[in-house]
Fold this sequence. Notes:
By secondary structure, the protein is of the alpha+beta class. It is 42% helix and 19% strand.
Amino acid sequence: MKPDHTIRARVPARAPTTPSLEVVESAAPKGEWTAPAAQEISVAMALSDFSARWRGSEGLQSQAVAAGTISICEVNQSKTFDLRNDTRFGIVLLQRNALDRIGQESGFIIPELQPRETIDDPILRSLVEVLLHAKNDGFRNGALFTDSVGAAFASHLLNHYSVSLPSRQISVGGMAPSVLRRCKDLMEANIEEDIRLDDLAREAGLSSSHFIRSFRESTGQTPYQFLLQQRVKRAQILMRDPLASLTEVALASGFADQHHLARVFRRVTGVTPSGYRRSL
């Protein structure tokens, strides 16, 4: 059976959310400011330079903190700062059960993080920046992208800031060809929808973090990279119809809107959708 590439009306999906992950920004004014207690795993990143005094695990601290500095906060513990200037924080809140799940998948019997007041970690900083950008962009890249970054975020925290080492090593290998084909078919069948990482992992019979590693081992791409490539290919086929608007093409290919299509299409192919259409 030939794939159906007919353009059908589609209601744009709501901005995707990841139940286990929340991304927020907070402004902290000069003077006394209290970071509220959180039940979730809370990782904060300074978005601007600031100087402050606070009482932490090592007693009274007084530091000049650079933008990009990371803090792994204590669970269910508020902290009061005496800020010498206004500042802003980006905060990623990770549900405890999500960390437990990733930990068990990675060989940790009891996944638990060591609170850290100031960390200079370029990889963790980049992951927080990606999540903040995704939030400010309205999560246009979709749930699979956010789920994948969230899994990488949790995995990095456990592998570098856990209070204990994993009890066993998890072997990573490629997928069986039949399993890989089913996963690719599932992405193709839902190319217009906001498919979740858990849906793909369930199809493969793997945990979410193991699925990402195995898929990349088999294809040389992350699941999200593969999905984007398939969406661009779908858009190229649909643009052969001169009556189809680029907005229709974008929605039928799984992009949030025409602007999202243009941005990704140019990054993948090196030309704009309009330029590609003129070349047909």
